[in-house]
Amino acid sequence: MKRKPAERSSQEFEAFVTETADPLFRSGYLMTANVAETEDLLQETFLRVARHWNRVRSMEYPLAYARRILINLALDGAASRDRRGQELRNPDEAAQVVDQGSLCRLSGIDDQAEFKWALTALPPRQRAVLILRYWDDLSEREVAEILRCPIGTVKSTTSRGVTELRSLLGRGENVIPISSHTKSDEEEASC
Asked: Which of 38, 97, 119, 182 has the smallest number of Cβ neighbours within 10 A?
């Protein structure tokens, strides 16, 4: 028995969601540092992809399209998330002042927690560039396409983000767990 085109399209979309949910969730979580907000971003991303699924499914890289939506949603909502977080803080907590050095040393108990803290302290655009470059392992060109900016902007934002991470973590050494297969555009061109 032949499947109807709408049924096949629906099954393809379900397969796409199953295949891409984990990597998109990871990127979203690194952007927001909040599971509930990440789930909301992911849901909105998949809703937007679903609206255009007939076009998206024929794309060479539908994950790149979904990733662009997710990152843009995260960047667009960063200011409201920051504002909402400040509004919801307990007034008694706001009265307590903790210097950054103490906070960093306390976070040093767990390097992963310390790194997540430092990553969330970065401006949203720097965070997005670092996540896309080093965790999603995208080339400078691919990041530039997703963020719709020049490659030079990706390079300079990456450099500033790494410098800021080093400062926040109080380290001079490499602070990003760069895999041996992170691509630069020069390496891609030589392939």
From this structure: 97
Residues 138 and 158 in one domain: yes
148: in domain: yes
Instruction: Determine the longest span between alpha carbons in the chain, in angstroms.
Output: 68
Return the half-sphere exposure (C-beta side, CA atoms, 13 A cut-off) of residue 138. Answer: 26
Residue 114 phi, psi (nearest 5): -65, -45
Query: Do the domain assignments include residue 191?
Result: no
| Percentage of the residues of the chain whose pLDDT score is greater than 70 | 69
Q: How many domains does the chain have?
A: 2
* Whether pLDDT at 96 is above 50: no
Going 148 to 37 to 27 to 106, the CA torsion angle's sign is: positive
| The pTM of the whole model exceeds 0.85 | no
